[in-house]
Amino acid sequence: MHNHLQIKDWGLGLSGHTIIAGPCSAETPEQIENICQAMIKEKMIPSMFRAGIWKPRTRPGSFEGIGEEGLEWMEIVRHHLNIPITTEVGNAAHVELALKHKVDVLWIGARTTVNPFAVQEIADALQGVDIPVMVKNPMNPDLQLWIGALERLHSVGIHKLAAIHRGFSDAYDKRFRNKPNWSMPIHLKREWKGMEVINDPSHIVGNRAGILETSQRAINFGLDGLMIETHHDPDKAWSDAKQQVTPAQLRDILAAIDFKDTLQEEQPDQKLNDLRQAVDHLDDQLLDLLQERFSIIDQIGHYKRENHLTVFQPGRWKEVMESRTQKGVDKNLSQKFMKELLYTIHEESVKRQEKQLREPAKVIK
Ligand SMILES: C=C(O[C@@H]1C=C(C(=O)O)C=C[C@H]1O)C(=O)O
Predict the structure, then answer these.
(1) Does the model's ipTM exceed the 0.90 cut?
(2) Atom 7 of ligand 1 has which residue's CA nearest to it?
(3) Are residues 96 and 138 in the same domain?
(4) Run means of pLDDT, 10 residues per run, the chain, 365 residues
(5) Is residue 289 part of a domain?
(6) How far is CA 65 from CA 60, 96, 113, in A?
(7) Bridge-partner residues for 136, per DSSP?
(8) Ligand 1 atom nearest residue 293's Cα
(9) What is the 334 CA–ligand 1 centroid distance (Å)?
């Protein structure tokens, strides 16, 4: 696995959950000044200040970002808040300008992560530079593409890496602007040990009312921070007006969240250990039962081979699927879980049996 540096080791003095706040877009020096002042007034100083300088918009004609001059206004943030500044880069020219203006942390947006050419161009522009980079998930739920983008950066020597879950484009589910897929950051954390994932509820829900709930869910799942678009006067924002909150609202949201800790492996806890031992025991039993089931599946496979029958038997499968799903639902297991579990078991059964058909005959007890 690739070694990388976690946020606490980025040399920016950060610790605990990372809270990134600031406007969707930098608009004017007055706007940046006002946001800083409101953050100071509300005692709501985030871990990092975000501001979009170049905005990838769905259709031309919307505000596409203020460009380089907005980077000059980041001095206002440094002066008032003295916290790291982060912005999105979408190509090598953006990287060059962000580095020229000493942006502390870069992020790559979802529309860029989908394109390996663009990610590689950014990575090449960062060769030999020591700067942290956060990578938002691609528009589509493709874990390998997300990991691939992180790897492209890692291979040019960018080791200060983190990921951002901002949800996935879904043409049908109108509840979200970008539908969250909580398995995806969990899979990412499983595949890349220690990779931190910041949640971006603003782009997930697309309206300020849903930000608290989605933030809490992210924390419950074990995500490592929040990026929340914050503006002193959200309704007048030049982009994403509906989803931005004021610094006062951000303070209330953060105060309402029940922040959780991941258990440190070295902290033993008797109660938890006992429960985990019970789980270990049950898992052993589950495996014994699966082993027994597959041994009978093999015997059925042998019978099918002798009697020239196909391995897949739709009638029997339908009955197994329907009756077991119902039994599972009666035992308070979700229908989705039951179906996925049964599909997985069935797939393995037919694979084993088909393999038997290809093998030379052998006696199965
Ligand atoms: C085990 C059999 O073969 C296949 C596997 C099944 C299973 O895992 O339960 C069910 C039907 C078949 O598609 C069988 O025919 O009974």
Answers:
(1) yes
(2) 346
(3) yes
(4) 92 96 98 98 98 91 93 97 98 98 98 98 97 98 98 98 96 92 96 97 96 96 97 96 97 96 72 94 98 97 94 96 98 98 98 89 61
(5) yes
(6) 12, 17, 19
(7) 164
(8) 8
(9) 22
